[in-house]
Amino acid sequence: MPWIHLKDIIGIYEFALKNPQLKGAYNAASPQHTTNEQFTEKIAEVLHKPLFMPNVPAFVLKIIFGELSVALLEGSRVDSQKIQNAGYRFQFPDLRDSLEDLLKK
User: Fold this and answer.
1) Closest CA to 79 of 12, 34, 27
2) Which residue of 22, 24, 90, 92 could cross-link 5, Cys pair, CB 3.0 to 4.6 Å?
3) Are the C-beta atoms of 8 and 83 separated by less than 8 Å?
4) What are phi and psi of 80, to 5 degrees?
5) Is residue 47, in this structure, part of any structural domain at all?
6) Can you give the residue range of the structural domain that contains 74?
């Protein structure tokens, strides 16, 4: 599941504006990949909240969400290497650090 800290999405836009030689599309997602389950667990951990995640069968998600269920069931791998190769350095590449910065205020 792709994710990005607010400061990094802003940072990428600012980086692109200051570097007109950048051409084409760039992915704005953290370099650290995670699953929806890991993401949810990390939020609960950072907030010190209990977590109960029922295991919902795939067919139920398909009935409820239709084609959108593919994104929920299979996820997507977004690579941020291109923007990193251009010189952008993520302020929050780690999910835990990002969530602590956003949620502990």
Assistant:
1) 27
2) 92
3) no
4) -100, 15
5) yes
6) 6-103
User: Residues 11-37: pLDDT tens digits?
Assistant: 999 999 999 999 999 999 999 988 888
Map tokens 């302020």 to a residue.
91
Confidence of residue 105 (pLDDT cuts 50, 70, 90): low
How many domains does the structure of the chain reveal? 1
Amino acid at 103: L
Can you give the chain as a three-state secondary structure string? CCCCCHHHHHHHHHHHHHCCCCCCCCCCCCCCCCCHHHHHHHHHHHHCCCCCCCCCCHHHHHHHHHHHHHHHHHCCCCCCHHHHHCCCCCCCCCHHHHHHHHHCC
Stated length of the chain: 105
- Give CA–CA dist 66/91, Å, rounded: 36
Report pTM: 0.80
Distance CA 75, CA 52 (A): 21
